[in-house]
């Protein structure tokens, strides 16, 4: 399945000058153009915190956790005696986006842990990518867990699934607005935002991932391994999501042997995180 360029543009929020710069660099030096594309591809944007999230930041206890990749990530805790939940946000996101859901589940006695991914939120700034994020989630699960339930949004859901592929253990998983099904189309459509040769630069970006992280990016696509994850899973997606198509969750649901699918309407990519019906569905699932 391919994600269209409009969806990718919303995901990366690219201004015109970046697209023009990429085309100029392509004419001057393809090596420089590749480095430029990689910097944007792996460089999350930190957006302003919304007022509705402030209660979460006031309630949660924040600490900085050093990872084995020498990055510091922000971790938030609202402890309780109940089952332990780990929240993982999406690309360009932050833990506070789960504020409504966290407030509900915390009030019901669940033990809350949320992390800002590398380069995101209040974590140390800098570039990151799916392999590093996957390793961080797996490491946090080992050092701060075990966790009973993983609740992840968008790109964080893809990384969460990969952490399970690499050995992380949860009793249940909630995947909200899952961001990617196949990896190759994600790279090609990103390059397509700049009007450049998709095949050529996707190959160059693939080479970059393999050089930096020593892994094949293709293996991180849920299409390659979702059928091997037997953990009880709830997939939540909005049919009008403009950033990650609901077909992604439908296809993963069809591959996963122990999953439920809950589709919504008129909530887009992020509004469903605070929607009362969605929150209720998730609360019922993890109880």
Percent range for helical residues?
Answer: 40-55%
Q: What does the radius of gyration come to?
A: 18 Å
* N- and C-termini, Cα separation: 33 Å
Spans where pLDDT lies below 50 across 5 or more residues: 5-10
Given helix and strand content, the structural type is alpha/beta
Topology pattern, helix = H, strand = E = HHHHEEEHEHEHEHHHEHEH
Q: What's the total count of β strands?
A: 8
Q: What fraction of the residues are assigned to beta strands by DSSP?
A: 15-25%
Q: Please state the overall shape, judged from the principal axes of the Cα atoms.
A: globular
Question: Taking strands numbered 1, 2, ... along the chain, how are they ordered across the largest sheet?
Answer: 1-2-4-3-5-6-7-8
Query: What's the main sheet like?
Result: 8 strands, mixed
Whole-number average pLDDT?
91
Number of helices: 12
Structure characterization notes:
The chain is globular, with a radius of gyration of 18 Å. It is of the alpha/beta class and 287 residues long. The model is unreliable at 5-10 (pLDDT under 50). The protein has helices at 5-12, 16-28, 30-41, 54-59, 99-107, 130-144, 155-165, 183-192, 198-213, 222-225, 246-255, 276-286; strands at 61-66, 72-78, 84-88, 111-115, 149-153, 172-176, 232-238, 259-264. β1 and β2 (72-78) form a beta hairpin. α2 (16-28) packs antiparallel against α3 and α6 (130-144) packs across α7 (155-165). It is built from twelve helices and eight strands.
């Amino acid at each position: 399945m391919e994600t269209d360029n409009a969806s990718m543009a919303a995901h990366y929020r690219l201004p015109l000058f970046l697209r023009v710069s990429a085309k100029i660099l392509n004419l001057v030096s393809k090596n420089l153009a590749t480095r430029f594309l990689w910097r944007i591809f792996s460089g999350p944007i930190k957006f302003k915190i919304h007022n509705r999230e402030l209660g979460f930041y006031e309630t949660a206890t924040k600490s900085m956790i050093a990872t084995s990749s020498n990055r510091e990530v922000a971790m938030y805790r609202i402890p309780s005696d109940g089952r332990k939940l780990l929240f993982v946000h999406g690309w360009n996101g932050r833990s506070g986006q789960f504020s409504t859901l966290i407030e509900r589940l915390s009030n019901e006695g669940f033990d809350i842990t949320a992390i800002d991914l590398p380069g995101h939120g209040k974590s140390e700034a800098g570039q990151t990518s799916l392999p590093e994020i996957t390793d961080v989630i797996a490491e946090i699960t080992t050092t701060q867990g075990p966790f009973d339930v993983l609740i992840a949004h968008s790109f964080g859901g893809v990384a969460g699934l990969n952490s399970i592929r690499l050995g992380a253990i949860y009793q249940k998983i909630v995947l909200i607005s899952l961001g990617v099904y196949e990896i190759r189309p994600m790279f090609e459509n990103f390059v397509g935002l700049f009007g450049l040769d998709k095949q050529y630069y996707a190959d160059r970006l693939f080479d970059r991932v393999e050089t930096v992280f020593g892994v094949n990016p293709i293996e991180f696509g849920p299409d390659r391994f979702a059928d091997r994850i037997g953990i009880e899973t709830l997939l939540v997606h909005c049919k009008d999501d403009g950033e990650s198509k609901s077909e992604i969750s439908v296809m993963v649901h069809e591959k996963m042997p122990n999953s439920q699918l809950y589709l919504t309407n008129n909530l887009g990519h992020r509004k469903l995180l605070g929607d009362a019906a969605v929150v209720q569905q998730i609360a019922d699932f993890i109880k």
